[in-house]
From TrEMBL:
Belongs to the AHA1 family. Pfam families: AHSA1. InterPro entries: ASHA1/2-like_C (IPR013538), START-like_dom_sf (IPR023393). It comes from the Bacteria. This is SRPBCC domain-containing protein. Residues 16-136 form the Activator of Hsp90 ATPase homologue 1/2-like C-terminal domain. It comes from Actinomadura vinacea.
C-alpha cells in the first residue's frame, strides 16, 4: 500500500483581514490566546520550534496541548504537529493562507486514522475558525 490513507477534512473560509493580520493571529502568542480560548501560550514559530498552550473548552475544562512546527512559510503556510497521547507520530495540521481581494482565504486540513478522530478535530477546527473570525472583526 502506498500513499497516505485515512480520514481527512479540509475547511476553507474567507476572512475579512489581510494575510499578514491572519498570520500574526496564528503566530503571536498574545493574539492566539485571545481567539483560540487558550492560556499559557508559547509559540516558537520556526521549523522544529515548539508550541504549547492550555485550551479552555466550553464548560471550563483545561486541556494542555504541545507540539512542534514542521513547516513555516511566512504569510503562506504553517504545518504544525500536535502530540497526541498514545500515538507515536504527531497529528499534523496544515494551515494555508492566500490573498483573496482585500481579505484572506484560509484553509485548514488534517488526516486521521479514524472517522471519530477526524470528526472531533474538524469540530475543533471550526470552533477555532469561528474564534479567529470574531477576533479579526474586532482587531
Amino acid at each position: 500500500m502506498t500513499g497516505t490513507t485515512g480520514f481527512d477534512y479540509t475547511l476553507t473560509r474567507s476572512l475579512d483581514a489581510p494575510v499578514h493580520a491572519v498570520w500574526q493571529a496564528w503566530t503571536i502568542a498574545d493574539d492566539y490566546a485571545k481567539w483560540a480560548s487558550a492560556e499559557e501560550v508559547v509559540l516558537d514559530v520556526r521549523p522544529g520550534g515548539a508550541w504549547s498552550s492550555v485550551m479552555v473548552i466550553p464548560g471550563g475544562a483545561r486541556v494542555p496541548l504541545t507540539g512542534t512546527y514542521i513547516e513555516v512559510e511566512e504569510n503562506k503556510r504553517l504545518v504544525m504537529g500536535m502530540n497526541v497521547p498514545g500515538r507515536d507520530e504527531p497529528a499534523l495540521m496544515t494551515m494555508d493562507l492566500a490573498a483573496d481581494g482585500e481579505g484572506t482565504k484560509i484553509t485548514l486540513s488534517q488526516t486521521f486514522d479514524t472517522a471519530e478522530d477526524r470528526d472531533q478535530a474538524e469540530a475543533g477546527s471550526n470552533m477555532l475558525l469561528d474564534g479567529l473570525t470574531a477576533f479579526l472583526a474586532t482587531s
